[in-house]
Amino acid sequence: MESNADTENQLMIEGSPDLQIDPKRARFPCCIVWTPIPVISWFIPFIGHIGICREDGVILDFAGPNFVSVDNFAFGAVARYLPISKEKLMLLHDFDQRFHAFPRPSLYISEDQQHDEQPENEILTWDDAIRKSTQEFQHRSYSLFTCNCHSFVANSLNRLRFNTGGWNVVNLATLIFLKGKWVNRASMVRSLLPFLVVISIGLAFGGYKKKTKKDYLHVINCDTIEIWNKQFQKANESKSLMIINFTASWCGPCRRINPFYRELAKKFPNVIFLEVDVDELMSVAEDWTVEAMPTFLFLKEGNIVDKM
């Protein structure tokens, strides 16, 4: 009898020969499946929605409060899958025989079922474990952080004692990310392309801001009278050519000229380029008889060389 039970259990785990993975029909016998979650997976690609498949390949996933979806995988088609090796499963009767354990309440049943003890000789097959987890999670509320789709799959794997159990949200997500197989190239592109686009946009805008900040280092913005006096004295002592751009935030032509002014400052590092906002330093503008914006002064040793 015991030999027959072992043989029956082995066949249940291995499945019949015609039960093969068929992505077109969404059939993944004895597998964990994964698909990206819109927006969230764009920024964190290893986070997604997962489910577990029965021996006939049908997907079950914890999709909401008190609801386990059957053959209707949330968030679209499967992108990655992970076949579960039967050699790494420690079924309940194997565990009891190996460690001579006595019948005891299941560690993974709900609180209202704790009085029901697991019969010593009952064989917990793959589908049995999923069915028991389904019954439990049909009475659970959904929480993004504490009770989600990963919790449902981890509960099933713990019932089967896959790799001796101890599965949770973190190590299960890590397992799928590191060892999950892509269904095809299209699923890989569909999962990773949004993340790469987001990264590219971030680098593009980040690079632009970095470049703009660097450009400003070549043009000294004199927004206080102290900075103006310091830079003016420095220019006189160095006897370098100093170009002053008198500008204003409300001046349209000033805004169009400013990028060229900064580009010019990059090409001539030996020239001191200053920028003065006439609204902030009106007294300086009056001292140098600035009447229109933009106005450019070319000074050498404190004397006006040119004005335009």
Would you spell out the secondary-structure blueprint of this structure?
Elements: H1 2-14, E1 31-36, H2 40-43, E2 48-53, E3 59-64, E4 67-70, E5 80-83, H3 92-99, H4 126-137, H5 149-160, H6 169-179, E6 181-182, H7 185-216, E7 219-222, H8 225-238, E8 241-247, H9 252-267, E9 272-277, H10 282-287, E10 295-300, E11 303-307
Parallel strand pairs: 7-9, 8-9
Antiparallel strand pairs: 1-2, 1-5, 2-3, 3-4, 5-6, 8-10, 10-11
Helix pairs in contact: 4-5
Protein traits:
2 domains; six-stranded antiparallel beta sheet; 42% helix; disordered N terminus; Thioredoxin_domain; Thioredoxin-like_sf; membrane; Thioredoxin_CS
Derived structural class: alpha+beta
- Main sheet attributes: strand count, strand direction, barrel closure: 6 strands, antiparallel
Q: Order of strands across the widest beta sheet?
A: 4-3-2-1-5-6
Helix fraction by DSSP (H/I, runs of at least 4): 40-55%
